[in-house]
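Lecture notes, unit on binding sites. The following record was shown on slide 14. It pairs a sequence with heme C.
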Amino acid sequence: MKRKILLAIVVIALFAAVLWIYLAERPRRFEIRRAGAAIPIGTPVQIEAPLGLPPVPIPADNPPTAETIALGRRLYYDPILSVDNTVACGTCHKPELGFSDGKPVSQGVHGQKGTRNAPTVFNAAYYTTQFWDGRAPNLEKQAEGPVQNPIEMAHTLEGVEKKLMADPSYRQEFEKAFGPGAISYETVGKAIASFERQGLGRTMLLTSDITPLLCAPTRVHDVNKGGTSGDKTFRISTLFRWIYLCSVFSKQ
Ligand code: HEC
């Protein structure tokens, strides 16, 4: 009899332990499922590598599509990513300034000054690490940095998710790009990364193949410095780049 009671206690204890572990793990398992499901759907887009350069590296879980590129373009220029809706990625990486901001150090929300210079995002698709110190492994992860930086956008990933979910037009665009479900920051990073990759391929194709003479004497960074007035080649190539870069990266 005593043995039976003991056995029953052991069985109940085991059952309770299994139930407890299951309930405790449930949210985490949901997160993992949600992250794994964030694969782009829609119309695939081929990113052409400029002549002479290797293929643009693309992560297997983020093939570029027309929908993610369009969404990434919108997000890149939208200050909604910052805590007070004043600063966008495009504030510090402006197409007309060679995808930088023309300042020694960048300025984020509430006029706060950072400690580093904003590098151009032009070409960034080829880098094996991102940021001056290489602390982000790819464009997808890099896009998480500025949002959480207290000087730049001073927001949280969860805060951005909530703001985007509250906007019906964003909900619709995310659904078209990644299928139904809650908006996760993972999809924000993926869309922005595809937008940055697409701009690179087409822009470089033009500057390296079609206009070598016009573009050779200048580099995109020269646009930052304003060039030297009276330098005709500079002005022609700057104008040319400006029109082209703006057409590729424009808000539409
Ligand atoms: C307040 C200005 C500011 C904002 C806003 C900002 N950036 Fe930056 N960005 C910088 C600075 C400064 C760096 C360099 C920081 C470092 O290396 O620590 C940088 C680095 C980068 C890099 C790395 C390039 C390289 O050469 O390694 C990429 C890509 C980039 N930003 C894209 C973005 C995207 C996408 C957003 C929006 C989600 C964004 N930035 C928002 C200022 C800004």
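Take-home: The chain has a mean pLDDT of 79.
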